[in-house]
Amino acid sequence: MREIGADELRHIARGAAILGTGGGGDPYIGRLVAEQAVLEYGPVLVAELHEVPDDALVAGIGMIGAPTVMIEKLPAGEEAVTAFLTLQREIGRPITHVLPIEVGGMNSLAPFPVAASLGLPVLDADCMGRAFPMVQMVVCTLDGVLARPLAVADEKGNSIVLDVHDNHWAERLARSATIGMGCTALMSSFPMSGKQARDITIPGTLTLAAKLGRLVERVRQQHVDPCQAIASFLGGEVLFTGKVVDVMRANDPGFAKGEARLEGDGASCRLEFQNEHLVASRDGEVVASVPDLICVLDAEGEPVPAERLRYGQRVAVLGAPCHPRWRTPEGLALVGPSAFGYSHAYSPLGGQ
Amino acid sequence: MREIGADELRHIARGAAILGTGGGGDPYIGRLVAEQAVLEYGPVLVAELHEVPDDALVAGIGMIGAPTVMIEKLPAGEEAVTAFLTLQREIGRPITHVLPIEVGGMNSLAPFPVAASLGLPVLDADCMGRAFPMVQMVVCTLDGVLARPLAVADEKGNSIVLDVHDNHWAERLARSATIGMGCTALMSSFPMSGKQARDITIPGTLTLAAKLGRLVERVRQQHVDPCQAIASFLGGEVLFTGKVVDVMRANDPGFAKGEARLEGDGASCRLEFQNEHLVASRDGEVVASVPDLICVLDAEGEPVPAERLRYGQRVAVLGAPCHPRWRTPEGLALVGPSAFGYSHAYSPLGGQ
Predict the structure, then answer these.
(1) Is B104 exposed, middle or buried (CB count within 10 Å of its CB: 0-12, 13-18, 19+)?
(2) Taking every annotated instance into account, which residue ranges of this chain make up the domain S-Me-THD-like C-terminal (chains A, B) (predicted)?
(3) Which residues from B are below 8 Å from A162, CB to CB?
(4) Cα separation of A141 and B96, whole Å?
(5) Which of A28, A291, B81, B281 is 20 to 30 A from A13 in CA distance terms?
(6) Of B223, B217, B204, B202, nearest to B291 (Cα)?
(7) Which of A42, A41, A34, A48 is closest to A1 using CA atoms?
(8) What are the domain boundaries of chain B?
(9) Contact A172, A52 (CB under 8 A)
(10) Which one of B88, B148, B173, B181 makes the best mutation probe of the A interface by having the most chain A beta carbons within 10 Å?
């Protein structure tokens, strides 16, 4: 286990926002909430998966809802703690480790207020290896770990516990509840043993995010193109460079849905998103698609969350391979194009 | 305490559907569910309020959602038990008495499966003295008894517990959850002591419903006009008699909302409903309004739930005074015309 300091929080927020593929929450807000918690309660310990005892009780923490809304309806910092304590009370025994449910500017750091205030370690892992918009879109679903119980809390102190049949129902009912709470909330769920966490979750993603965040800062000082450096770090490629010429968005139902149109170099690019970027098309042809990562970066290599896309921004669109688990038939059924209603076949990035 | 037999269940269902003012659920479904429970587990005891010990733990049970949907998405019978047990687990001690949250064809009988299967008495009382569409529209809200915790369960065995600040938030989040469950569910909430139940709830409404149901059967045999007989039993009046010529309805958001137009005797009548009938207008003028009771009956005195209104029905529209608590300034603020977005002033029926 090692301590996470303020510097590393900044690197994690930036790197995780890149891996969050447009979703996973705003890195600035995520960093502020985590820094505030560390400032108030002291440093947080991060544990590697191999350090977790078999009989540990691990639970995930993450944002749910439309990130667009969270920019204005700021988290109070306490809702993750409320959700976590509600879950723990429902389970009836102490949870020993917290885990980011997904990688994201906000979501990789969402467990930190809980970890800091309750003195629990955060696991260096997550359940997606990126960000996805729905509750069931986690490796847990592939391995039979249920979102049961699932606690949701808002910044007003309201909380809800779900006891549901499967992770798709968890999504459906947690989403409804979140809409009632004003379209953003914090959730805690996926209780699992230490052994399950080791067997199931995607390891090292906090460290990966920190490395990526550090890389961005380093290459900037070296006057290297950060977008190319990030692409090559992730084994991906820059798919498009240009200017945002149109953005359409809606909060329906409880997601930040929309699309952006980009132009540059005599070509056009279309990005479709549901919290995360789902599909990138160049001149009408799909060039990257879920579950692969589609990241939008400004010229400094700063990740641009989907909810921050706006007319006139000059950006690069980057594609990178997802975790291999998502490329299996079960993985693709859960998070591939058809899971989002698309009819195109998935064509893996990165020459696999 | 006295036993309720199958005959009385029939009377309660019919009488409660009249008092349910178009809402409160379908009396046929309500009766079937209650009869099935009594058949399976044996008779149910009904307790008068004065028979409840001070330190009893009382909880309410009722349907939530759009009654239109419940006609097709039938209750399984077990969801009230699931909601009740979820609430009891959350509270952490045994609930001793169950209470209908509102009067209604379905809702007066909603506690019966719980009472029958768990051997608990049902209180001869409710929290509205009629039916209203929203969670906060109960005398409990006037007296500071909170819907906290509140459990919601669906026919698939999913359940949710809310822990919220006030009864308006309970409505908001329980409604969201219910929409996720498919627009109908059963809820259990308003835990209170026996003393509180005695001080707060509206007494004798199961007995009243049974009397009213019995009256309808009796006057039919005596060839008396049942609608006039019901009106005079309730101290109300027949406001309109005619034919339904148009019905508009929508399930939005999680309610059966709509309006019906009636014609007869050279006049027209408009009924606006949100689960329950809210306003009746004759030739454009409001003749009855929430919180007073507006009941639609066919020529046999059979109550017609708002979700069963259809073109061509010949019906009588009856108005009757509500419980005096709803006519106080606090009562009107909670359930009067303005609570439903109307600008008309409330003019009490029955010459008060």
Answers:
(1) buried
(2) 166-349
(3) 158-160
(4) 39
(5) A291
(6) B202
(7) A48
(8) 2-203, 225-340
(9) no
(10) B173
- What angle, rounded to 10 degrees, do the helices at B205-221 and B226-233 form? 150
Among A156, A165, A180, select the one facing B176 at the smallest CB separation. A180
Which chain A residues have a beta carbon less than 8 Å from that of B160? 160-163, 173, 177
Here the tokens at position A131 are 């960000």
Nearest to B280 by CA among B265, B266, B295, B267: B295
Please state, in angstroms and rounded to a whole number, the distance separating the CA atoms of residues B281 and B262: 10
β-partners of residue A237 are: A319
The ipTM is: 0.81
**Hey, what are A171's tokens?**
């999504």
Residue A212 in contact with residue A15, Cβ under 8 Å? yes
Distance, CA of B86 to CA of B79 (rounded, Å): 10
The answer, yes or no, to whether residue B351 has pLDDT greater than 80, is no
**Residue B289: which of B350, B209, B246, B205 has the closest Cα?**
B350
Contact indicator for A164, A148 with CB cutoff of 8 Å: yes
Structure tokens that stand for B276 in this block: 């329950």
Sequence-ordered strand ranges (E) for chain B: 2-4, 44-47, 57-65, 97-100, 122-123, 125-126, 150-153, 159-163, 184-193, 202-203, 237-251, 256-264, 267-274, 276-282, 285-289, 293-298, 314-320
Q: What residues are paired with A166 via a beta bridge?
A: none
Among candidates B341, B226, B344, which has minimal Cα distance to B295?
A: B226
Alpha-carbon gap, residue A66 to A253, rounded angstroms: 9
| Domain B2-203 annotated CATH 3.20.20.10 | no
CA atoms of A208 and A213, how far apart (whole Å): 9
Instruction: List the alpha helices (DSSP H) in A201-328.
Output: 205-221, 226-233
CB contact under 8 A, B156 and A177: no
Residue A310: partners with Cβ closer than 8 Å, 6 or more residues away: A244, A247
Token representation of residue B155: 């026919």
Cβ A188 vs Cβ A86: under 8 Å: yes
How are beta strands A159-163 and A150-153 bridged, if at all?
antiparallel
Chain B contact for A252 (CB, 8 A cutoff): no
Token look-up 């939530």 returns: B64
Residue B91 forms contact with A (CB below 8 Å): no
Identity of residue B277 = H
Q: How is domain A225-340 classified at the CATH fold level?
A: CV3147-like (2.40.390)
Q: Which residue of A has its CA nearest to B90?
A: A90
The answer to whether B305 touches B112, Cβ cutoff 8 Å, is: no
Long-range contacts of A197-200 (CB under 8 A, 24+ apart): A197/A49, A197/A52, A197/A56, A197/A58, A197/A97, A197/A99, A197/A123, A197/A125, A198/A49, A198/A50, A198/A52, A199/A143, A200/A127, A200/A139, A200/A140, A200/A143, A200/A145
Classify the C-alpha dihedral A166-A171-A176-A178 as positive or negative.
positive
Q: Which residue of B has its CA nearest to A86?
A: B163
CB B38 within 8 A of CB B44: yes
Whether residue B289 contacts residue B279, with contact meaning beta carbons closer than 8 Å, is answered with: yes
pLDDT by residue for chain A (352 residues), tens only, comes to: 999 988 899 999 999 999 999 999 999 999 999 999 999 999 999 999 999 999 999 999 999 998 888 878 888 778 999 999 999 999 999 999 999 999 999 999 999 999 999 999 999 999 999 999 999 999 999 999 999 999 999 999 999 999 998 999 999 999 999 999 998 999 999 999 999 999 999 999 999 999 999 999 999 999 899 999 999 999 999 999 999 999 999 877 789 999 999 999 899 999 999 999 999 999 999 999 999 999 999 999 999 999 999 999 999 999 999 999 999 999 999 999 999 999 999 999 986 4
